[in-house]
Amino acid sequence: MSENMTYLKDEIYYSELYDKFTIEKCQHWEKSDNLSSLKDKDESVAKIKKDFFDKCVIPVSMYFLKGDRYEKKDETIKKWMDSDKAKDDKLENAIEPKGIRCLQCSSPEMTCISRDLMDDSNKKENVMFMFQCDKCGKRRAYWENGKEWEHKPTLCSKCNTEMQSSSNRKGEIITTIYSCPQCGNKDTDTFDSSVKKEPIDPNFEMNRKKYCLSREDGSEYIAQKGRMEEMKHIVDGWEEKKQNKELYDAIAKIKKLTIFELQNLLNPIFEKAGYVKLEFEKPELQKDVTLGFNLQDSKSGRSEWDSVHELQKLFKKVLADTNWRLMSDGVNYRLGFLTGRLRGVEGEENLRKLIEKDIKDKLQKNGKK
Ligand SMILES: [Zn+2]
Ligand SMILES: [Zn+2]
């Protein structure tokens, strides 16, 4: 790598690279016609399967694949360019280590001839500086943090001794010969240092037209996808409504009673059951309305337990389809004087919660049975 080589390239480069991957992906898909699931002992069945695959599965999959590739193109190119730009910045901003002397002749006149990004011993990309002695030409390499690059010895595959190496260059080809001083084992390694130009794919432009959506078609795909998602949202809404039919029906049926209406509802029913003089206290207005009540048991001979439980049962039954509930602290009884609290709910959201709790309690009770 030469010093002025930069990672960041023209946007066209990334755009073409992305399209190349898109073409490969699409062609891979189209070639998957040899799937085992398409095979069948019956030739006519196999033909139907193949027809269906060719005429339906592939076109639909291709529609979404092409659209998806288009949708992610700008974002992906930006990521690639940001990453290459970051590499350039890292190289440019790296600070050259100072005070390097030649290992051969101790001359302090070492010139930095290149800086490159390389993986260090921890596989982390770091900047490596190459210095060359102005006097004798010997080189030393340093990482940005001042640590000298360590040559890793090549060990003999037969006896594990460190091998000696010599390199020669013919044109762009560098050949290194390793030889073991212990057992005479030899190994060669060749490296082609020429910059390879990728051959031009003569079908590239044609395939690009076939598989890579234009701005216009791509925008149409994104709009179409948006419409489909909107549709799905609506259908999901219907599904949810259907699933919660019991809940919605119960909410629709609920009677929303004022305190006055509540009293009118309860009075005749309670009197008939032997509970009289129903009185409400001043309501506490919080998120819900809390309403203290008291009444008297007019049925002589009814025990405390019976009085309390019959009243609780009655409340439950009468209030079931209203927005009022007996609070969980229940009913108190002193010499036929009964007290307790009711809770009144307002607003659709709170009503929904109230009904949900009823349904849950019902399910739990059924589960216990
Ligand atoms: Zn030197
Ligand atoms: Zn050896």
Task: Outline the fold blueprint.
Blueprint: H1 11-30, H2 43-93, E1 110-119, E2 125-133, E3 139-143, E4 164-170, E5 173-179, E6 186-192, H3 204-211, H4 215-243, H5 245-253, H6 259-272, E7 275-280, E8 284-285, E9 289-297, H7 304-319, E10 324-334, E11 337-344, H8 348-368
Antiparallel strand pairs: 1-2, 2-3, 4-5, 5-6, 7-9, 8-9, 9-11, 10-11
Helix pairs in contact: 1-2, 1-3, 5-8
The chain binds zinc ion (ZN) (2 copies).
Task: Describe the structure in brief.
The chain is of the alpha+beta class. The protein is 46% helix and 22% strand. The chain has helices at 11-30, 43-93, 204-211, 215-243, 245-253, 259-272, 304-319, 348-368, and strands at 110-119, 125-133, 139-143, 164-170, 173-179, 186-192, 275-280, 284-285, 289-297, 324-334, 337-344.
Structure description:
It is a single chain. The protein is an alpha+beta fold and 369 residues long. Among the domains are: 11-93, no CATH class; 153-194, N-terminal domain of TfIIb (Single Sheet), CATH 2.20.25.420; 251-368, 2-Layer Sandwich (Threonyl-tRNA Synthetase, Chain A, domain 2). Helix content is 46%, strand content 22%. It is built from 8 helices and 11 strands. It has helices spanning 11-30, 43-93, 204-211, 215-243, 245-253, 259-272, 304-319, 348-368; strands spanning 110-119, 125-133, 139-143, 164-170, 173-179, 186-192, 275-280, 284-285, 289-297, 324-334, 337-344. The strands form 3 sheets. Strands 7, 8, 9, 10 and 11 form a 5-stranded antiparallel beta sheet that branches. The chain is elongated, with a radius of gyration of 42 Å. Bound molecules: zinc ion (2 copies). The site of one zinc ion has 8 residues, from loops.
